[in-house]
Task: inverse folding
């Protein structure tokens, strides 16, 4: 069976989505994650469309990847200039990227209304641009924009466009459903036709008809050897075809070994990693990788799964690094709590723990991302919890002074072993200042708290429609170098919620298991 | 062309999704909304599985619908009892619902591992149950559970099951991909086979492979005359097939007139209505009905849309009650800025505006959701911006006192027309307190600012991995009762970022257009 090439467009096409933006550093981290997953090609963007992209390519040039090849993205030459005189192509040629992906027109409607070039000139633009980059020693991926609309409008011309790209030496010619206007059956018909004209073709779909994944698979069934998509389907409008689901389907449903079993096991982690960087709440219902993608609620289902998982599941969740969850039907809930308590060597009344969790979740708490706070909850229930200190008071002052300077100062007053500690610290923000003041006091007694680092800080407004009166949920991730744990705070006051999460994160660090380790 | 029957399972199968729950009253409102949309059948649930369902059927019995028929949902008779002795079937027969949908087994694996009945007994259970309800004067929809898994395991037996249901008088036999384990090509093959055996068949899919919608359409292409789905695809695990997208595709892409043009215009409103009742944030990227489903960001795209919308859109957004939106972004062309400036009657150098936007977005600003701040930026560029006040300083104090009480107090010192205003206010959080103090001063001069309401408050940490040292982006939505606008602030200090957004939101409210209106 031909191997399918995985082409990720998250960093370029994906960034067209509303609110999508990553720093150059973050983009490099994404490429490493995609490299570990086993993606073949990563579209990084146009080398110098703006400072951020320029910075990104400088960084990428210095990185080494085990598997991934970087693709620089651009367009065919402008009309009326030779390829070697086109600035855009020159930038691509000069880039370190071994692969260049260029997009060109296929659809008469666009030639007339958008770029205003003749059909013949467009064919020349395609052929010469591809040939130029090939002559510069680049591997060229040619994206045939609006291929399917063009095919429906003028089959012969659409086929001439892709043939021109291949004739000029393109490694792969990609059929793009740019407007996301095609159905799987239309994709299949056109792709079968292309297969008669072109050696190696790929597919690039969007999700406007909620068929992005199915459209991609339809093309693969007709011989496409490259699938383009984005992590979790991020992208403009309704998004691009979701590469996560495409991988899952190719590998577990269609028998294409696109990844090793070990790489496939990273699918869930990779999907969540990208969401985290974008500060998107991972979709709990996302196919293959969602938190509840393998969850069961209906009583009959739960019974069935117990009898034989295959009765109600299309695959083993573990294969994609996900897990089965039986939703808080009392029973399932207790089992989970009991399991976690056992793992910590704690004796708890699981039923009471669940009641407590339900009550807290009703108030906006969420323990899935706050394992540290959940552990403290279990210890309290088990009666083995020891507070790190007794709080007298804390105060945080943030001011913008007359000279325009913003200053933050926090003061904490706490008691430890009958001793009173009063500390004040400045910070770049209220939480940072409170953290410094609190740890300034605590590290005198517990020096190792000095090594802790707050690695992640998330704020979510729970009932956003209540404006600033809404309840605020703060999630903190803390690391001691080996181990990372999450803590949570909920309060209508964002600073008070942050304080609560901060205290949990430090107390969790002091629990026996860690002190021993 | 055969008319396709729209069957909505939101109130029954949809409620299997995590966190999905509606009161009986709310469910009745949903049915009315579905009736207006033009849905044919609504699956309301099992008439007395619990008090809530019982109440629902009492209410529904008293309602009148223009178009919708209510379907009561149940199962085939238990093994070893006659159909007329089965309590479940008796409840269905007694229900006012003109339609009864019953689900039965098709898959040997389930017969062995879950229900433990013989293949022959199962056929009898199907036939006798359908026949009983038909004899009671019901129209019967038969759901063949796990049809596609069963078909792959034992084609002949699967076909005998659906034939048995039809033979006993079922109006429609529905092929259910219960585990969501099938791909469109598999659905097509099996459906084509069924079409040779059964008169009227329908399709019920889930989205586990992100192919729920495509699978449904694949069955329609093979002759399915009933499509089952849920509003926005809610449901267990990854959800059911999304009836909203199915309707959009059937009507606008496949030429099936399932709705009138006027009903199709209600698609967006209906989708959002259900989300609202379920207290779900509507997915802005949802196909057809999402807020940004027809948004454009890429500069080339924006230019194209302006030339001719069909160049970058698969349809007119208005046809489904949605609208086009152009996003401002570091990737966007000058055209967008120019258009927004025109709309405000401002003269700007679009190129300079874009450079400014790029520079700001590089620092973490994002104007897509902050149209208010973008308007102010345009006014500054046009030289017609007038600040609402001159800031001397602000200060915010948040403290948890020794008695445990959290208190927040803000003081602002500003100048307006040479007058100095010093105000202090308390609030339930820092932003709320600053807002009160600031407006306390400003409303003396601009009374109408009193009517403003902060309706939405979002906080994003931009480089989360920098922990509390990360840059914070605050988005505020403000309403004056008619109009809602977004404003943005970016600062490493969350309070300073909030202040910036707050000031923008008030200044935007003071701009000429609004004061006139």
Result:
């Amino acid at each position: 069976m031909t191997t399918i090439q995985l082409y990720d467009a998250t960093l370029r096409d994906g960034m067209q989505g509303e609110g999508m933006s990553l720093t150059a550093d973050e983009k490099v981290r994404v490429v490493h994650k995609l490299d570990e997953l086993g993606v073949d090609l990563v579209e990084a963007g146009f080398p110098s469309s703006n400072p951020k992209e320029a910075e990104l390519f400088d960084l990428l040039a210095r990185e080494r990847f085990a598997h991934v090849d970087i693709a620089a993205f651009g367009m065919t030459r402008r009309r009326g200039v030779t390829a070697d005189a086109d600035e855009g192509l020159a930038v691509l040629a000069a880039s370190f990227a071994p692969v260049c992906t260029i997009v060109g027109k296929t659809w008469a409607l666009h030639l007339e209304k958008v770029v205003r070039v003749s059909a013949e000139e467009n064919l020349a633009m395609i052929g010469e641009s591809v040939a130029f980059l090939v002559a510069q020693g680049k591997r060229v991926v040619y994206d045939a924009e609006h291929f399917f609309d063009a095919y429906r409008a003028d089959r012969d011309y659409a086929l001439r466009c892709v043939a021109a790209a291949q004739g000029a030496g393109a490694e792969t010619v990609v059929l793009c459903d740019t407007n996301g206007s095609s159905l799987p059956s239309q994709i299949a018909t056109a792709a079968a036709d292309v297969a008669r004209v072109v050696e190696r073709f790929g597919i690039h779909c969007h999700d406007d008809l909620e068929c992005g994944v199915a459209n991609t698979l339809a093309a693969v069934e007709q011989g496409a050897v490259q699938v383009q998509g984005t992590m979790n389907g991020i992208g403009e409008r309704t998004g691009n075809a979701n590469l996560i689901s495409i991988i899952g389907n190719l590998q577990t449903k269609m028998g294409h070994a696109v990844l090793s079993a070990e790489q496939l096991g990273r699918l869930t982690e990779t999907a969540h990693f990208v969401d985290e960087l974008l500060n998107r709440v991972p979709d709990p219902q996302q196919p293959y990788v969602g938190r509840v993608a393998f969850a069961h609620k209906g009583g009959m289902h739960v019974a069935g799964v117990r009898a034989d998982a295959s009765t109600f599941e299309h695959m083993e969740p573990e294969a994609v690094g996900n897990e089965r969850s039986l939703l808080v039907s009392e029973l399932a809930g207790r089992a989970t709590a009991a399991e976690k308590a056992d793992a910590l060597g704690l004796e708890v009344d699981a039923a009471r723990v669940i009641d407590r969790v339900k009550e807290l979740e009703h108030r906006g708490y969420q323990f899935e991302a706050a394992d540290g706070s959940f552990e403290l909850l279990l210890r309290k229930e088990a009666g083995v919890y020891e507070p790190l200190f007794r709080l007298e008071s804390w105060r945080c002052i943030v001011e913008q002074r007359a000279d325009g300077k913003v200053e933050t100062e926090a003061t904490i007053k706490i008691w430890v072993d009958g001793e009173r500690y009063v500390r004040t610290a400045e910070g770049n923000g209220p939480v940072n200042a409170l953290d410094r003041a609190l740890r300034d006091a605590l590290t005198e007694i517990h020096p190792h708290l000095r090594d802790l680092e707050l690695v992640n800080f998330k704020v979510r407004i729970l009932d956003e429609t209540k404006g600033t009166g809404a309840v605020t949920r703060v999630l903190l991730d803390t690391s001691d170098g080996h181990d990372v744990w999450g803590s949570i705070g909920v309060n209508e006051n964002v600073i008070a919620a942050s304080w609560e999460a901060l205290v949990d994160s430090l107390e969790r660090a002091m629990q026996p298991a860690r002190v021993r380790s």
Residues 295-382 of chain A form one domain.
